[in-house]
Amino acid sequence: MTTMEAKFRMILRDRSAVYIPGYAVDTFVGMSSEGYAVCKEGRMQWGLTNCCGASAKGSMGAIVCRNCCEEIDPMLGGDIDVAAG
Ligand SMILES: [Zn+2]
What we know:
0% of the residues lie in helices and 36% in strands. It is mainly beta and 85 residues long. Strands 3-4-5 form a three-stranded antiparallel sheet, with no helix packed on it. It has a two-stranded antiparallel ribbon with strand order 1-2. Strands 6-7 form a two-stranded antiparallel ribbon. It is globular and about 40 Å long. The protein starts with 6 loop residues before the first strand and ends in a 20-residue tail after the last strand. The site of zinc ion (ZN) has 8 residues, from loops.
């Protein structure tokens, strides 16, 4: 997967804007305190990478972006929560 989908502009409660990929719009729930877009579906909750708006995956001991395979913040591969407020 190398082609990026169109990004959608979401307005947050504090009126700042965030751009997330179209496929993530339905599951987007807010921003984490680290500034990552957070998606949730059922009991699954995950952050999107800043580079591609993709989810994280583990690769040879590192956490990488599922789209471009660049190494990313390891916290994106773990539990992530929407910032309070
Ligand atoms: Zn990426």
